[in-house]
Structures are given as C-alpha cells and as structure tokens.
Write a structure and sequence with these properties.
The protein has 88 residues and is mostly helical. It has 3 helices and no strands.
C-alpha cells in the first residue's frame, strides 16, 4: 500500500514538520496487520532524519569540544605562568 502525503511543497518546512506525524499514523497500520516492514520515504523524510541526527549530535559534540578547549587553555596558561615565575 502506498500513499502520497501533501503537507506542503517538497523541501519545505511544512513537509519536513509533517514527517513525525505521518510516521506515527502510518506505523499503526502495520502493527495491526502484522506487516514486517513499513516506513515513510522520500527526500523530506531523509532530510528530516539527517536534521534530527545532526541536531542530537551537536548537543553532545559542542559541550565536549568546549570542555577540551578549556582544558587546553588551562594547561597552556599553567605552563606560561610557571615559565614566568621560574625565570625570576
């Protein structure tokens, strides 16, 4: 069974925002009928998946990188301070 959804033009924000609701609605049918596979496919679904994955990755990567930069700055500052004190 195939269906075409019209939430907006392909590539639009409205079409991407309709993907979670379309998936939730469409997954009830396969569960009820015992189907092995189902899904929402297309460029908007792919773009939604990539955006969701990259957003969740950014929430993890950015704080880790900032902490590493802070540690490097503290190490460099400590070495600089020690070298200034040791010359006197």
């Amino acid at each position: 069974m195939y269906a075409a959804l019209r939430a907006g033009p392909s590539g639009s924000t409205a079409a991407a925002n309709a993907i979670p609701q379309a998936r939730a609605t469409l997954y009830t049918v396969p569960r009820a009928t015992g189907a092995q596979a189902s899904g929402v496919a297309g460029p908007d679904a792919s773009a939604y998946d990539v955006n969701a994955a990259s957003s969740s990755s950014l929430m993890l990567v950015v704080p880790v990188v900032l902490v590493l930069i802070l540690i490097l700055i503290l190490i460099l500052f400590g070495l600089l301070l020690r070298s200034l004190v040791a010359t006197r």
